[in-house]
Amino acid sequence: MEIIREVEAAGGMTRAVAEGWPKLRILSAATRRQARIERGLDVIVGVNRYTTDAHAEPAVELRTIDNQQVRGEQIERLARVKASRDAEEVRRRLDVLSSAALEPRSNLVELAVHAARARATLGEISGALERAWGRYSDAASQLSGSYGQYYAEEPHWLALQRRIREFESRVGRRPRLLVAKLGQDGHDRGARLIASAFADAGFDVDVGPLFQTPDEVAQQAVDNDVHAVGISTQAGAHLTLVPALVERLQQLGATDIVTVCGGVIPEADHAALRAAGVKDIFGPGTPIVEAIDRLLEEIWPANEASAAADTPHATAGPSGEHEGR
E strand or H helix at 217, and its extent? Predict the structure, then answer.
């Protein structure tokens, strides 16, 4: 009831959602819960207590989908539909939808159905609404402290923070991570949880918007001058989209940006991702502290850190970029 009264005082749930704070509250609770599980303060049988050896479990046969084949077939099907439809009628229906989107009492579902019957694609219908409204941007701000509070005196955590401070001292800035979602994957709670934990450890963290293309993520990584891109994925398109991202980074000359993946990725797909250039893969159940440690090792290997400790501090070049990044 206290929360409900707070929502009402703020002007109602619609306004609260627009301002992003309900999502932020949920993320804060999820982040605290994750930290408590990893610290063993909350027990989940089979996850952090009374676990079994994963290799002792019988292998599960997975159905493998050739994403490239499916994508090619779908593109070919779309081309056939577009070639056989009345293009002028499609354009008219989409224009009507865009105009109606600006009228508060319009029945947009009905107009979208009319456009679909004219063989407009889902992307074209969404695009017609986007022309009127723009694209949704998440208003939720970044959390801080929710994860790190449970590790304040934990030796491994403190060692990681010391190493990150040493990185900043030697390189001239903190390690920077872009957490991104690719394709039609709208599940971002895990991505934001990761972002919060890495920020608490001492990383500078950027969180990309939902539904990005590999080109968009690569460009954001270059523009923000990050050291690593972390792809959070649950939608099963990793074998198509992640290699495309790595390739685009190479085309942009950003071969020094490390690409890692986390989320629901079958172990059978790991080899293909690594062959495409992915440096590490964090599956479900990977402790976040371990993920931070492993990513930091990819960005700044222990042998380089040790060598840096015996040499003068790095100096910035003319562009502000530090030598040896």
Answer: helix 214-223
- Reported as a pLDDT band with limits 50, 70 and 90, residue 264 is confident
How many other β-carbons are positioned within 10 Å of the β-carbon of residue 320?
A: 9
Higher pLDDT, 17 or 303: 17
Q: Which of 141-145, 154-158, 254-258, 278-282 comes out lowest in average pLDDT?
A: 141-145
Choose among 134, 241, 227: nearest CA to 183: 241
Please compute Rg for the chain using Cα positions: 23
- 214, with CB counted inside 10 A (0-12, 13-18, 19+), is buried
Q: What's the pTM?
A: 0.81
Round to whole Å and give the CA distance between 104 and 106: 6
Query: Distance between CA atoms of 116 and 121, rounded to whole angstroms?
Result: 7
Q: What is the CATH number of domain 148-309?
A: 3.40.50.280
Query: Taking a C-beta distance cutoff of 8 angstroms, is the pair 254, 218 a contact?
Result: yes
Question: Strand order in 258-263's β-sheet?
Answer: 204-207, 176-180, 228-233, 258-263, 280-282
Take residue 7 and report the two structure tokens written for it: 């929502």
Q: Could you give the CA distance from residue 107 to residue 57 in angstroms, rounded to a whole number?
A: 53
What are the pLDDT digits (tens) for 33-54? 999 999 999 999 988 888 887 6
Biggest alpha carbon distance in the chain?
Answer: 71
* 261, HSE (Cβ side, Cα atoms, 13 Å): 30
pLDDT for 212-242, tens place per residue? 999 999 999 999 999 999 999 887 889 989 9
**Counting Cβ atoms within 10 Å, is residue 283 exposed (0-12), middle (13-18) or buried (19+)?**
middle
